[in-house]
Amino acid sequence: QVQLAESGGGLVQAGGSLRLSCVASGRTLGDYYMGWFRQAPGKEREFVARIRWSLGTTRYMDSVKDRFTISRDLAGKTVYLQMNTLKPEDTAVYYCAARAVTATDYNYWGQGTQVTVSS
Predict the structure, then answer these.
(1) Assuming Cys at both sites, which of 6, 10, 84, 93 could form a disulfide with 113, CB separation 3.0 to 4.6 Å?
(2) For the chain, which ranges sit under pLDDT 70?
């Protein structure tokens, strides 16, 4: 089992920055993807970014790739999402998730952290 705990959400003005953190505990993370997803009110949850825990390779959704950066701290078992130049449309609950590279679905989820961007 993997437990995930997010933090770092809050209220920020458009153009501002936030850094989200996700601490993993439980089993050792081997070849896993650690991802960030978000869900805005009335919308479906969407993929934001992911990082391969073992290699550090990354992938982003198109609308954030020039503004957000995902990174990891292997020793601290923490994944970060640095969000810059935030826009009101980035407002959502952000979730950290994990899955084995060989799995098809993310099966470990955090509780979510609210990010609100005011215009």
Answers:
(1) 6
(2) none
